[in-house]
Amino acid sequence: LYFSAHWCPPCKGYTPKLAEQYKAVAAAGKSFEVIFVSSDRDEASFKEYFGEMPWLALPYAARKTKAALSKKYKVNGIPTLILLDGATGELLNKDGRSAVMEIADFPWRPPTLWDCLGEEVLGHDGDVEVADLRKEGGVLGLYFSAHWCPPCKGYTPKLAEQYKAVAAAGKSFEVIFVSSDRDEASFKEYFGEMPWLALPYAARKTKAALSKKYKVNGIPTLILLDGATGELLNKDGRSAVMEIADFPWRPPTLWDCLGEEVLGHDGDVEVADLRKEGGVLGLYFSAHW
Asked: Do 2-105 and 114-246 show the same overall fold?
């Protein structure tokens, strides 16, 4: 879904590049179709702009459909290219704009955790195989931090203490330090204070890919992942890991939050009785004032 407009200079610059790539993907025997979703100000502009494109378009008059698609995929700016599975409609990649520039990466799914990490990470006694970190029932943490960051320097000793306590409790918990240090010497000094593993400092592209994948906008950040599948468990690992009893630190479900009973007008109602196949449960946040 290509969200774009005739009046938008970045769109006008990107559209010829996308058209070139669209034809190249077809020439490579790949199935790739595009639908132009217009933000043009009038139908004449839409028609002129669509005339420059080799793909399909949502009718300009379908403004409600355009608004629904923008809302569904949280499109906040243009140009935006949303990539979807051609059979299921499943979201493949919200950053299609850059992804499609590499035909070899078709169908342009974002890399998994394991794709990003590669084959090895650093241990204090040598390289460690990433495959050896994949453990059923385990938790893998990505610790985004830096030597120059005061909050990081304050948090790292607390995390190290908890890391050892979790191991002593018989839980499988490994951490990989992902450095935002300004040079390798600072990285090495800081890593020397840590009891866990690290992404090699030279792997700057991997660091960038992980930061992008997990939307890391500040440090310290601790991302918690399922040790077997790489599934995201908790983006707020920084506070979550302070409670060993809550291992593996998944955020509470709705049912965890609600507890066992809620109030009815004629007495308490069991939450278990609200769980109905095909039903809908609404949480109404409101106040008298």
From this structure: yes
